[in-house]
Design brief:
single chain; 286 residues; mainly alpha
Length: 286
């Protein structure tokens, strides 16, 4: 009598395991993970708000206790004046256009080059020494040479931004390709997948997080390069406006430029984070 009963228990074990797994997939109990995720997101938003308010409070306190800082109301008043005069819109449009063109062009070229370097040994051997060579040279160090060769128009400023974004993103993409788990590639080959299919279905998705991290880092480098480029050769832009304000010791205008760059950079970074969450939803996050 014991044997059949034990056999029935053994046969029922897969059913019990299946029932347990069912509880973990949609249709089981999805409310708890969703609620936990929402709670974590709400907590982060609250902490972000506290951080912003605290930072402004520290800034205001320093301005009132002897530091040569303009107060937040003074910066807002100066920003409103620049906006009404049309200078702020002109500077925002000029700087944002340069960053977008240089950053998007640099990232668009860096991604295929990084894929080729990571996938083909010949390409890696040919390209990597030059990329590593130029990566150690700050793009701004090349600005005097670029100005001599390309003049003082928009091309040299966009080029150094392009270079800054490209060098960061290409290394990140390359690292993403070479970091793909070889077990996944070998498993795909065992299942009969060709190299093209493996590249599209395995390598590209696995490299996407690295690419987006490289793009976020390249975005910061693009803004840093832009401001320095506008300090040297520009007739409009946030960096140019800050340089002009420095000559007249106009700290409020300098702060307006800093705040605008920070806000624009933050918004663009959040857009990349949103794209990352959509493209890498399969990735586990803390």
């Amino acid at each position: 009598m014991t044997g059949p009963a034990e056999g029935d228990d053994v046969r029922r074990q897969p059913e019990a395991q299946l029932a347990t797994m069912t509880m973990a997939v949609p249709g089981g109990e999805p409310e708890k993970p969703a609620r936990a995720k929402m709670t974590k997101r709400t907590k982060l938003l609250i902490l972000n708000a506290i951080s912003v308010v605290g930072g402004i409070g520290i800034w205001w306190t320093l301005a009132l206790t002897g530091f040569q800082f303009p107060t937040p109301p003074e910066v807002i008043e100066t920003g409103v004046k620049l906006w009404k005069s049309g200078l702020l819109q002109e500077d925002l449009a000029a700087s944002l256009t340069r960053v977008l063109i240089g950053f998007l062009a640099g990232s668009a070229l860096a991604i295929p080059v990084g894929f080729v370097m990571g996938w083909y040994t010949v390409a890696r051997g040919l390209f990597e020494p030059w990329i590593q060579f130029f990566r150690t040279i700050p793009p701004l160090a090349l600005l005097p040479l670029v100005l001599v060769l390309l003049g003082i128009g928009e091309v040299p400023k966009v080029f150094v931004i392009f270079l800054a974004a490209f060098l960061v993103c290409v290394i990140s993409t390359y690292q993403g390709v070479v970091s793909v788990d070889r077990t996944l590639i070998n498993a795909a080959r065992v299942l009969g997948a060709k190299d093209g299919t493996i590249f599209v279905r395995v390598v590209v998705p696995a490299s996407t997080p690295f690419i987006l991290v490289g793009m976020r880092t390249g975005l910061g480098s693009s803004w840093a390069t832009l401001v320095a480029a506008e300090l040297l050769a520009a007739q409009a832009g946030l960096g140019y406006r800050m340089q002009q304000a420095q000559l007249y010791y106009d700290l409020a205008t300098i702060f307006v430029g800093i705040v605008c760059i920070g806000i624009l950079g933050l918004v663009m970074d959040r857009l990349l984070l949103l794209a990352e969450s959509k493209l890498t939803g399969w990735q586990e996050r803390i």
